[in-house]
Amino acid sequence: MKKLALIAIVATILAGCVRNNPDPAWLEVTEWTFESNAIGVVGDEGILTHNFTDAWVFIDNKFIGVFEVPFKIPVLVSGESEIKLYPTIRNNGISATKKIYPYADPYIISANLVQNQTLTVNPVTRYKDNTTIRLWDFDDPGNLQIEAGQNSNTTLIFDNDPMVMTSINGSGYGHVNFTNSMNQWQATSLELSDVPQQQAEVYLEIDYYNTVPIVTGVIAVEPSAVTGNVNVQINSQDEAEIEWKKIYLDLKTIVSGYPNAYAYRLSFDAILPDSLQTGYINIDNMKLVHR
Fold first, then answer.
1. For the chain, how far is it from start to end, CA to CA, in angstroms?
2. For a disulfide at 210, which of 108, 136, 182, 281, Cβ 3.0-4.6 Å?
3. pLDDT per residue over 116-172, tens digit each?
4. CA–CA separation, 256 and 45 (whole Å)
5. CATH architecture under which domain 2-125 falls
6. Cα(249)–Cα(207) distance, rounded to whole angstroms?
7. What's the CATH number of domain 134-290, 2.40.110.10, 3.40.228.10, 2.60.120.330, 2.60.120.200?
8. What's the pTM value of the predicted model, to 2 decimals?
């Protein structure tokens, strides 16, 4: 709520600036482009998808505001200026939580801002150098690296339905089918070691296309205990409007909450809603991202 209030205040100030200063320069920013940094990252960055919905804007190191791309704003600066745009996500899929993504480079340019003229910026970003990426691309039917749980009566399989496939899917995606008799999916990743703790930023990126909600979580594996933690629910989509979407799941609090853990597992739980006779979950381009 505080961030929403801040954004509202900034918008009000900008409107007042235009009224009181009728000759501002204008900054127009288009949607983000996400380019490869295959040489700079540790691991496989896979197919590049993103959901950078906003930009934090700084001009000459002064905070201007947070704006949903694309946008056009007045700025009371003229002359040669340094403009910094930071790729921004909806943390855990929450629209009110607009956070700079810690593993994407800012876009920085020097440009001349002129009163009554519009400067158009096409921001480009990529994964930061030395970012570690662990990829599940679900392109190999024999190596999905997701294990079904004991209480699961359906499982994740490889699929490549052309009605679902898009350019983001490579040769396929992970698919879970639900019916009245196959109505519960529980699954985990294999154990993941060397996940940084001590409040380090850790994210799980997932592309999803689903009519059944997914409860995500993290299982901490310690020498004396194995503890499951629910994290975020990925809501279901209406069949009539379904599309591939992307979410950034913040794992920092859970991971750092278990300093004695030597490994972690990602967990997934889903139950077919009573209102449906059938349903499905499709996931792709899943990435554990950290440094």
1. 30
2. 281
3. 999 999 999 999 999 999 999 999 999 999 999 999 999 999 999 999 999 999 999
4. 24
5. Sandwich (2.60)
6. 11
7. 2.60.120.200
8. 0.92
Q: Classify strands 118-121 and 25-29 as parallel, antiparallel or unpaired.
A: parallel
205 Cα distance to chain centroid? 5
Residue type, 24: P
Count the helix, strand and coil residues of the chain and give each as a percent rounded to the nearest 5: 10, 45, 45
- Token code pair at residue 271: 């139950």
How far is the CA of 193 from the CAs of 90, 134, 169, in angstroms?
A: 27, 11, 27
What amino acid is encoded at 257 in this protein? G
Distance CA 25, CA 17 (A): 11
Distance CA 68, CA 74 (A): 15
CA distance 229 to 54: 29
Phi then psi for residue 192, to 5 deg, are: -115, 115
| Token pair for 274 | 């009573």
